[in-house]
Amino acid sequence: MNIKYEINRLKNEKDACILAHYYTLPEIQEIADYVGDSYYLSKIAKDLEQSTIVFCGVKFMAESAKLISPQKKVLFPNQEATCDMVNRVDMDKVKELMNEHKNGVLISYVNCSTELKAMSYTCVTSSSAQEVISNVKNKKIIFVPDKNLGGYISSKFPSKEFVLWDGCCCYHDNITSEQVTQKKLLYPNAKVLVHPECREEVRNLADYIGSTSGIIDYATKDAKDEFIVVTDVGILHELEKTNPDKKFYELPINCSSMKLINLQDVYKCLQDEEYEITIEGEISLKATEALEKMHKLARR
Ligand code: SF4
Hints:
Layout: H1 3-13, E1 16-21, H2 26-31, E2 34-36, H3 38-44, E3 52-56, H4 59-68, E4 73-75, H5 84-87, H6 91-100, E5 105-109, H7 114-119, E6 122-124, H8 129-134, E7 140-144, H9 147-156, E8 161-164, H10 170-173, H11 177-186, E9 191-194, H12 200-203, E10 208-209, H13 212-221, E11 226-230, H14 235-242, E12 247-250, H15 263-272, H16 281-298
Parallel strand pairs: 1-2, 1-3, 3-4, 5-6, 5-7, 7-8, 9-10, 9-11, 11-12
């Protein structure tokens, strides 16, 4: 069986569109109709013509697509693909934090559960965070769940007070300044491109800090032809495809959940139309409101 041919056939038969994040396997990015970062994918979902979305990434992303486009059938090919940072948030402790800081407004990184989105005033992605927060009037912000992204954003808003949840992406947080410095010694002409989920000591070594799409844009437009890329290795597929004459050096950031969905999963998902994402009731309305507010406040 030619699996790519079969996926394409089923896609047309079932009026489906495949969305994939830049951190997924190269073969998944290749069969996807649209590849992007969380912000792009959350925006595009609702404008698609097709009635079914097959979402390749991790579960919270497929849930966001469902929230933004409730009238569509959203299928998620592998239930095991969940985000470790999202799973580690203790909702009772979030409520405690909100009680402790009653004058604060809860803002969540889009990498969080639907339940947490529903409790939030708004959400942010790494590419929209600065624009969104510059349009939030409250002085005190309770930021959940990534302390590294929260720390980075807080440095841009010295007049605001940030209360940061003590969570992080274990893959990005694992990278140290020593590892980046070692790479820099090997490739002294390369520019360092860093995702804001990395620690401050790593961000301090960056020539550019930004989201996955920001990193791709920067590397594509920049005159340099060598880059040290400090985010998930999945991004190299798009970087190398778009910039065949440039060189990219990776750090050991490789999110296993993002690599779980394979071609067989996508084929089965389309064939059996599972697993369908369902989110109902008040939680769905409130979480959608937080996501829509993000798009409104980001003003793009
Ligand atoms: S890279 Fe980190 S934040 Fe993104 S899905 Fe994997 S564990 Fe979660």
